[in-house]
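Quick one: structure tokens for this chain, please?
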Amino acid sequence: MDIEKRIRKRLEQRRQDGNYRILPRTSYGNDFYSNDYLGFAKSQQIYERVSDLTAVASLADGKLNGSTGSRLLSGNNVYVEELEKELTRFFKSDSALVFNSGFNLNMGLLSNVATDGDVILLDQNIHASLKVGAKLSQAETYYFHHNNLEHLEKRLISLRKKKDGLFFVITEGLFSMDGDIPDLISMLELCEKYGAHLIVDEAHSAGIYGDYGEGLVAKYGLEKKVFCRVITFGKAFGSFGAALLGPNYLKECFINFCPSFIYTTSMPLNSVLTTTTALQYRKNSDQEIKTLLNNCQYFADQMDTNFIGPIFSFQFKSLEILKKCTEECKKENIKLLPIMSPTVQKGKERIRVCIHSFNTKEEMDKIINILRSYK
């Protein structure tokens, strides 16, 4: 079989399974699918402030467009270093290291800290980037049932009897597809009991939870107890990129040994300054967060479900019903797409509704009525 036939066979199988993907074109409409929870990606104030800062910084740095190289060559500058200092203050961390994306960071994270003889324990619903990172490491990888501390403890007890290496337990702050959160305090207690290092991906919880959006780890005062955190800027902060938060020696390790940090062109000034500005705005965004929480509570009450955060997940009796529901949403100018396997497990395809601070009651009522008619 030649390469074209092999690839076309895979694509045809995906079509038959009903989950063939195409790239959707962004369109105008009522946004219920993006991760722009606080509307920062649309903020005219942030845009204008960043435009002014970028113009001055670009002239001072001599780089009007790109960053010209990796951080270890020509791509480092005072602005990204200042961003990392601000991140340590904002998230109450010993250090911060900026990456170009959360996937880039997570791909390098586990493959950089775990090695032969170590054990990685992942929540079964963890983001794909951490699964890839685990595969790239030489450690043995196991999964525990989603948010199930009893199953996690059984895994830890069983594996501790056989393995002497380092143990890593990985979870998310706010799960991107389920919209739920783990019991971080109890999970940390288990990790301490069995000598495991807890890593928390706060991609979706940062910016939402805590007094100023510091995330769940900081909200519960666990900053010094977890091994490290992953923060991304493309969700509530409306920007681009990610950061590793943890002890100083971990930052030094990544600068020296992490390929996904070392061998990539660094972030351009505009993105660096957008994130720096977004952090400053988040400290004074009481109205945005209040409106977001009120919207989430209204939506949860109307749909008779629990309010945990801005992500709501709805499964249907069949794929046909799911697709009909999303088609009706499209007709009503509601921006929403079905979540299909392999993004979620086969048989657990769903509609993922993201609530934002800028959604109006009228917009929410439209999607509420449609969802009710198909449930």
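The chain has two domains: 18-38+285-374, 49-282.
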